[in-house]
Specification:
183 residues; alpha+beta; OB fold (Dihydrolipoamide Acetyltransferase, E2P); 6-stranded mixed sheet; 5-stranded mixed sheet; 4 helices; 11 strands; 43% strand; globular; Chemotaxis protein CheW; CheW; CheW-lke_dom; CheW-like_dom_sf
Amino acid sequence: MTSIGVDRDRSEASVAEATRYLTFTLQGDAYALDIFHVTEILEQRPLTAVPMTPDFIRGVINLRGRAVPVIDLSLRFGHAETVIGRRTSIIIVTISEAVGAEELVSQQIGVLVDAVNKVVTFTPDDIEPAPAFGAGIRADYISGMAKRDNDFIVVLDIGRVLSLRDIAALNNAMAEAAGAGEP
């Protein structure tokens, strides 16, 4: 009887520790990111190109009066440019990182993907450690590999994929572009 109570406690703890992830496809592969970072999902829309930015920055969109940079995740991973199709989407994520002892910097960034699939729940038992090789992207971009239906979904560490250094470069490029447009 005690073991049933222990199993129930373990099961309840697993449910409490479960995290929801947004799954999407990119170049035929399945990826997921923690829903905590996702602000919204948009249909693909025309982008305004920003000169002098890295090639993985496809441009900016106007999101309620704010210029939000859009990253082509496929290019960021060193693969071919995302081909715009019927299901192509822009996932708006918010990245926050500490700068110094007390300052927290937040930035909204659009992530261009082939298709958004669904929100799933993974427990810590569902996620294996990231492999050191073989995923086709930098190992530090991966927080784990989630087991799902006899396959794996690459769980991204979006904070590393879109690092603070990259956010600062985006901000500088957008500021320079805004300044260049003024007389």
